[in-house]
Amino acid sequence: MSLTNNPNVNKWVEEMTALTKPDKIVWIDGSQEQLEALTKEVTELPDDSRDKLFWLNQEKLPGCLYHRTLANDVARVEDRTFICTKNKKDAGPTNNWCDPAEMYAKLTPLYDGVMKGRTMYVIPYSMGPIGSPLAKVGVEVTDSIYVVLNMNIMTRMGKAAFENLGGTSNDFVRGLHSKADVDPENRYICHFPEDNTIWSVNSAYGGNVLLGKKCFALRIASYQGRNESWMAEHMLILGIEKPDGNTKYVCAAFPSACGKTNLAMLIPPEGYVKKGYKVYTVGDDIAWLKQGEDGRLWAINPEKGFFGVAPGTNEKSNYNALASTRKNTIFTNVAINNDDNTVWWEGLDKNPPENATEWKGAKVNGREYTANGGKLAHPNSRFTAPAENCPCISPEFNNPKGVPVDAIVFGGRRAKTAPLVYQSFDWQHGTFVGSIMASETTAAAAGAVGVVRRDPMAMLPFCGYNMGDYFTHWLEMGKKLGDKAPKIFNVNWFRTDEEGKFIWPGFGDNMRVLDWIIERCDGNAEAEKTAIGYEPKANDINIEGLDGISYETVEDLLSVDSSLWLEDIKGIKEFYAGFGDTLPEELAQELSRLEERLA
Ligand code: GTP
Ligand code: SPV
Ligand code: MN
């Protein structure tokens, strides 16, 4: 029975029912009883069922579940992700485009009767705290209990979301998901921003099927944000409480698997803790940003949990993320330690379990397997953990107003070009800095790993409209914010030495760079004007208590090699050329100015 009187919702669900023809429809109210019943059902499936979730050790990991997806279905599929707008130009040169009518016609047969013999779950959810003026409602229909249980962690899911929508509004995002046969040849992740609609088929991997996340909160929301004068960004949000009790908020955009979750939960070095610095996590992946009544830019995290990369997460690298996964968490594609039915992944510790099941399901001797170069966990294996588990979750996490943003930070994986940190001259130049971001690709998306590609604002795979128009939107937001705009910075934790080793220690020590950033915002830190922006001098970065890092190392990390940059400019020009007349003139000007300054 429907959970709402909203005729638009009910009509759409009827249409989806007529299309997919499920045996049964279950509306997800979000109650504990319902979640427990679904968990029971999905954990009692036969072990060889593709849909099965397994209970983990309930003493060591209470409430935690395990799932593995098919080997061909472990990451986002960018080549099968489409933005379907009436005009091709509105999707822009960086998105796969298809005419909406054509795509609906192509996908309809894939959905026709696909839920025969299955149950359709209707999931109402809110992105953002219920009642927040920045929050938005979505409804996802799916044939996957795994999706329901993950959406429960990642969003404010259940009947309350409908209260937010009201009785007659049509302003909800329609998400249709079917795992279908999980056939990679017929896998599509399609967005129809002009219809508030997402259709995802033949995948069961998180980023492709938890439609509130990248599909709605970035691709559809970025489109809505342009029309409604706000921004949806691939950014973590963190608060830094200074010893004087004042808290600074920083939003940072790094591409997938480039350190957002880690930075969002960092533990400051001892010296900072002693002085009284504290770090609070507001979000680890997505920020929705809107100008507040005070003229400043305010941010909410639309999500309620973390869908984080497991490998590399350990007590030392990210204590808070690990702590977040110790209860009520769903692990996907990690390895199992069969001795005690717990989880393991590369980088958790130095002791791969001997009696292991690797992520594809084979029982192996984990020690031998890893010694021979095998990976027990998939490099993009993930945990879905409730944000409320996080020891450093911000007291503002559920604040419907969000938090005021002091600084915006861009960053990527660059072995050489980008220095440790620099500040843009102003918002327009900062928009330029974001637009020329580049990063080495990671396992978060299917395809080659380690290839440098341009990834403006870490939004390349997530911008739901023409990225040239997106740059214009950034410039317009800056004009509206005026002198209340956050300051814009760029960081790079990933410079390498001759042996290919990371020079900067990263992780908690990134606090040392954030320190300079927030003091710049307060007008307390020195900087030098260089060709690319304002840079700290080496001794403006606090390296007290850092082993193996001298001021010479910092100087090296801050150095700018003009010839490398001029080489990079060639790539930027090529990239910019793809935008044709949608590239804002201001960015073309910034590029020629940069070239002049470097020459
Ligand atoms: P998505 O969830 O895909 O958006 O990724 P993310 O940006 O949240 O990345 P995450 O924090 O999960 O980090 C991904 C990988 O980068 C992990 O293997 C980390 O160990 C590594 N990493 C994170 N921060 C640092 C850092 O400061 N230095 C170095 N060298 N590696 C880092
Ligand atoms: C990313 O790839 O940026 C993620 C994971 O945060 S996914 O939900 O798969 O997009
Ligand atoms: Mn992400």
Strand percentage:
15-25%
Given as residue ranges, the uncertain stretches (5+ residues, pLDDT < 50) are none
What number is the mean pLDDT?
Answer: 97
Distance between the termini: 69 Å
Record the SSE blueprint:
Layout: H1 7-20, E1 24-27, H2 32-43, E2 54-55, E3 65-67, E4 81-83, E5 96-97, H3 100-111, E6 119-127, E7 136-142, H4 145-154, E8 156-157, H5 159-165, E9 172-178, E10 188-192, E11 197-201, H6 206-209, H7 212-228, E12 231-233, E13 235-241, E14 247-253, H8 260-264, H9 270-275, E15 278-283, E16 287-291, E17 297-300, E18 305-309, H10 319-324, E19 330-332, E20 335-337, E21 342-344, E22 355-357, E23 363-365, H11 366-371, E24 382-386, E25 403-404, E26 407-411, E27 421-423, H12 427-435, E28 438-440, E29 452-454, H13 467-481, E30 487-491, H14 511-521, E31 528-529, E32 534-535, H15 551-558, H16 562-577, H17 585-598
Parallel strand pairs: 1-6, 3-19, 4-5, 4-10, 7-9, 9-11, 14-26, 26-30
Antiparallel strand pairs: 2-3, 6-7, 6-8, 10-11, 12-16, 13-14, 13-15, 16-17, 17-25, 18-24, 19-24, 20-21, 20-22, 22-23, 27-30, 28-29, 31-32
This protein binds guanosine-5'-triphosphate, sulfopyruvate and manganese (II) ion (MN).
